[in-house]
Amino acid sequence: MTTETIMMIANIILKIINIFFVVYLIGYSTFLFLSVAVGSSELFKKKRQYRMMNAIQNNYFIPISIIVPAYNEEVTVTYTVKSLLALDYNVYEIIVVDDGSKDDTSKVMIDEFKMSPVRMPIHRQIRCQEEEYVYSVKIHNVNVTLIRKKNGGKADALNMGINASKYPYFICIDADSVLQYDSLKKIALPLLENENVVAVGGSVRPSNGAKIEGGHVVSYKLPRNMLASMQTLEYDRSFLASRILLDKFNGALIISGAFGLFQKKVVIDAGGYDPSTMGEDMELVVKIHEYCTANDISYLVKYATDAICWSQVPEKLRDLMKQRRRWHIGLFQSLWMHRHLAVNPKYGPVSFISYTYFLLYELLSPYIEVFGVLSVVMAFFLDMLNVRFALIFTGIYAIFGAVMSLTSFFARTQTLDLQLSFLDVLKAVGLCVFEVTILRSVLAYTRFFALFGYKKKKRNWGKIERKKIDFH
Questions:
Q1: Is it the case that residue 444 has pLDDT exceeding 60?
Q2: What is the CA radius of gyration of the chain?
Q3: pLDDT per residue over 175-212, tens digit each?
Q4: Residues contacting 193, CB < 8 A, separation 6+
Q5: How far apart are CA 21 and CA 420, in angstroms?
Q6: 448-462 confidence digits (pLDDT tens)
Q7: Which side of the chain, N or C, has fewer Cβ within a 10 Å radius?
Q8: What is the pLDDT of residue 52?
């Protein structure tokens, strides 16, 4: 084969690669733009509605069980429970499930709230590990229950909480998170608006930098830690982008494990949380879509944009990489376990839009990005790269991503009536480009290698450094 022939073949291959990436980036950019536009519009619409009327009357309350799975959370768990006791809601219970912690998670709960041991029969409708002991106390007419069980993973802890719960709906919330005083009202609102709602996702915002008193945010600023600040921008773009748009056609495939509400009967009938996965939150939602469709059940999975959960984000790069590795493995497991949803007319938009989006732009994106970088390197060495155009194109893409991040961030802060200082505004503007380029690249690297040898630790919670929550 002559050099001329090799160059011609290489040129054809690069042209095909170029076409693929143009279509791929146009698809992602269009989806991101529409998501942010629709999301911002929806947030401001919700804000106007709440200014004009009381969205939920005080005499309408759906009883809710709040389940808090905890593993080595002695630093944060009592603060989380205190925030839950400050909720403006009439009928709810709190169930903390200690999943065999190696620290004093149970002890600090028992000591802080002066809990007493109780004999509590637990009807196992979903399989889970055995309980070791149960403590309980009643505080301000709210039953607080602590269940210590053998270690089985987060999904197993949630299944225990479901088995122990007494109300028809339950909320799962992480033990390093706090809810705003009105979050329960707002996440329950879709249940009152439509009887077919089986699950509702809440909004998660980084608590780093927020001061919360009695469930109210009394002061807010971007975290001092640059990594946490960049995650704040990332979270707002993520929650504002895909989730509100997918909500428009019942296409949500994930409800954050940090804050989500579910109809207990549907979850039990669908089989509960799967302890074999690291992405139990997403896997459950995908399973609900599958179960309801297969059984001809009319259902809706909604997203409450103004039901806010404040959750700690990692401030160390090592911890962040552990977290994102776990998320990516969970994404892979969920999509693979339910791969028959792909290009399946039976599931409609859930298949053709939601599943395709998560497959192409979430699961496969780090591999596609690495392939793109290698293509650019190959084109450079073959003298087929227009360096000036490549730099301009990269710059435009970075600016576009930064603008989307800033739009999402300012839309969220404005609609939540959070006051930003001038320095915080400058900080957000300055960090947005770093978040889109540097942080994204680091996380792409993490996700790229996430699936290598994942089976060894596929059920490991992982240890991430926690700090005391600024809650009073």
A1: yes
A2: 23
A3: 888 898 899 999 999 998 888 999 999 988 888 888 88
A4: none
A5: 38
A6: 998 886 665 555 545
A7: N
A8: 47
The pLDDT, as a whole number, for residue 336 is 94
Cβ within 8 Å of residue 339, ≥6 positions away:
none
* DSSP-derived pairing of the beta strands 64-70 and 131-139: unpaired
Q: In this structure, what token pair is assigned to residue 464?
A: 């991430």
- Confirm if 312 and 469 have CB atoms less than 8 A apart: yes
Q: Which residue has the tokens 């004999």?
A: 119
Count of Cβ atoms closer than 10 Å to residue 195 Cβ: 8
In 235-390, the DSSP E strands lie at 259-263, 300-311
Angle between helices 226-238 and 317-337 (to 10 degrees): 20
**What stretches of 13-159 adopt beta strand conformation (E)?**
64-70, 92-99, 116-117, 131-139, 142-149
Two structure tokens written together for 355 = 């599943």
* Rounded-to-integer distance, Cα 259 and Cα 66, Å: 10
Q: Are 330 and 449 in contact (CB under 8 A)?
A: no
Going from the N-terminus, what domains does the chain have, and what CATH number goes with each? Answer: 1-472 (3.90.550.10)
Q: How far apart are CA 282 and CA 274, in angstroms?
A: 10
CA nearest 278: which of 335, 238, 237, 227? 335
CA distances from 427 to 226, 351, 421 (A): 9, 39, 10
pLDDT tens digit string along 65-115?
999 999 999 988 998 899 899 898 989 999 999 999 999 999 999 999 999
DSSP state at residue 104: S
What φ, ψ does residue 305 adopt, rounded to 5°?
Answer: -65, -25
> Can you tell me the distance from the alpha carbon of 276 to that of 280, in angstroms, rounded to the nearest whole number?
8
Give which of 95, 107, 214, 220 is closest to 163, Cα–Cα: 95
Amino acid identity for residue 441 in this structure? S
C-alpha–C-alpha distance, residues 243 and 325, integer Å? 21
The pLDDT of residue 263 is: 97
Instruction: Select from 175, 176, 165, 171 the least CA-distant residue to 186.
Output: 171
pTM score of the predicted model: 0.86
pLDDT score of 59 more than 70: no
Nearest CA among 86, 107, 87, 88 for reference residue 96: 107
